[in-house]
Design goal:
This protein is mostly helical. 46% of the residues lie in helices and 9% in strands. A two-stranded antiparallel sheet has the order 1-2. A hairpin with a 5-residue loop joins β1 (24-30) and β2 (36-39). The longest helix has 16 residues, at 58-73.
Length: 127
């Protein structure tokens, strides 16, 4: 008979509480509910409020590990990696309780029309 062993999630609350919140992520992310994730502290707070089942998923464990490494080393490459993991976790299927907002493309800049003088138009018309 096999015994079933329960595996606890990698993201203990103690680790999440020790992360500094003044470190900025490489790219600020906007969530579908309007919140902005700009710092390690924002990401920490978001992960802390995930449902326990969702927090135990591998993608969130990877995000937590990357955030912990970034907070301990304070290196820009680690912050970039943590930002990338966070963005991928928010975009990957199945979408959980937290997801990224749809990115709206900014309007194309209007190009100014060249101003032609009336005299110039008349000359063209006469030729």
């Amino acid at each position: 008979m096999r015994q079933r062993v329960s595996v606890t999630p990698f993201v203990p609350r103690l680790i999440l509480r020790t992360m500094p919140d003044h470190l900025f992520l490489a790219k600020p992310l906007t969530l579908a509910d309007g919140r902005r994730v700009r710092t390690v502290g924002d990401a920490q707070e978001m992960i802390r409020h995930l449902p326990p089942r969702e927090r135990g998923e591998l993608r969130w464990q990877l995000v937590a590990a990357a955030l912990l490494t970034a907070s301990r080393t304070c290196r820009s490459d680690c912050l970039l990696l943590a930002s990338t993991h966070l963005e991928r976790a928010l975009l990957s299927e199945p979408l959980g309780s937290v997801r990224l907002a749809d990115e709206k493309k900014p309007a194309a800049p209007s190009l100014p029309r060249p101003i032609e003088s009336r005299l110039f138009r008349r000359r063209i018309g006469r030729d």
